[in-house]
Amino acid sequence: TQLLEQSPQFLSIQEGENLTVYCNSSSVFSSLQWYRQEPGEGPVLLVTVVTGGEVKKLKRLTFQFGDARKDSSLHITAAQPGDTGLYLCAGANTDKLIFGTGTRLQVFP
Amino acid sequence: DVKVTQSSRYLVKRTGEKVFLECVQDMDHENMFWYRQDPGLGLRLIYFSYDVKMKEKGDIPEGYSVSREKKERFSLILESASTNQTSMYLCASRRQGNYGYTFGSGTRLTVV
Q1: pLDDT value at residue A95
Q2: Distance in angstroms (rounded) separating the CA atoms of residues A58 and A1
Q3: pLDDT tens per residue, range A26-61
Q4: pLDDT tens-digit profile of B8-29?
Q5: Is the Cβ of A94 closer than 8 Å to some Cβ of chain B?
Q6: CB contact, 8 Å: A85 with chain B?
Q7: What residues in B contact A35, CB-CB < 8 Å?
Q8: Is there a contact between A50 and B101 if contact means CB atoms under 8 Å apart?
Q9: Which of A30, A44, A99 sits opposite B43 (nearest CB)?
Q10: A91 — contact with chain B (CB < 8 Å)?
Q11: How far, in Å, CA of B31 to CA of A9, rounded?
């Protein structure tokens, strides 16, 4: 069974701080996606990275796909309370997504 | 606004009942998925469907079945609900290919 481990599991920070979330696997994925889920809602797609080494930026969020396409990171600059939520990485293999274990982020004003 | 709609946000059912969870998408997507989400276990795939009338077992299909008679609708059926099926159920759809999923808002099912 393919596994995607995310770290840290929980992160509680003050507004304005920077943070990085990691997503690691021993398996190679054809692409990797990041989602954010707010309480009581379904996950919402943030980004898809496809090429090894690829870096994508979405405002204050920077996503990187590892060179070997086994891992990824999400860096948030100057976190805001609106960034609070559960962040999920998901690796694509054939027609299914394998979801990571999730990182719960709380940003305090 | 394109969306995936799950028929109920909250459901309470009794042990042994047959439960139907409905999911409808308006994006003409070929692929549809049912997941359950539990604390500490993440999202686990129950069943998925590549197209109408097609279905494939996911990682945890036991105790569940599905129906996809129309492209836009994917139903999850709990044949005889049990307390260990208390969970958040999430439906998702995706265009065929390497695209992101669009999720519904989820159904929080409690079996008592």
Answers
A1: 72
A2: 31
A3: 989 989 999 999 988 999 999 999 999 999 999 999
A4: 999 999 999 999 999 999 999 9
A5: no
A6: no
A7: 101, 103
A8: no
A9: A99
A10: no
A11: 30
Helix or strand holding residue A58 (H, E) = strand A55-58
| Among A12, A77, A83, A86, CA closest to B40 | A86
Q: What are phi and psi of B83, to 5 degrees?
A: -65, -30
Is the pLDDT confidence value at A1 over 60?
no
Contact B43 A88 (CB under 8 A): yes
Q: What does the alpha-carbon distance between residue A105 and residue A108 come to, in Å, rounded to a whole number?
A: 10
For residue B20, give how far its alpha carbon lies from the nearest alpha carbon of chain A (Å): 19
CA distances from B75 to B23, B91, B95 (A): 6, 9, 18
Q: Tokens standing for B26?
A: 């308006």
pLDDT confidence of B98, banded at 50, 70, 90? confident
